Amino acid sequence: MSDTTDKPKAFALPRVIPAIETAMVRVTSAHERPNPRIRAIVEPILAAHNVLWADVAGPTRTAALVRARRDVYVALRKAGYSLPLIGSWCNRDHSTIRHHVVKAAAEAATTAKDTE
Fold it and tell me: What is the reported pLDDT for 39?
């Protein structure tokens, strides 16, 4: 019989993961269950596009979902929420949110110019 105490012990990393796990739980719970103020802003958009919050916060990049995301980003930004906060709720970087908000504004300006 071999004695397990003679074997070298595996290298153990310091336990700094709890902070990361806590942050992930916070982000996950934020995009699964947004607060009532956010829900009031976002729910009509989700219903209009026939998508779920999990779809908006998920990784899929179909054209329909991208359009729904853009409308959510713009609505939340118009409501006064910061880019990093919107990004954390939607599992995106703040620069992605900014890109979509700027692009939506450019499209709106082009549409307004074309209708004149």
Answer: 87
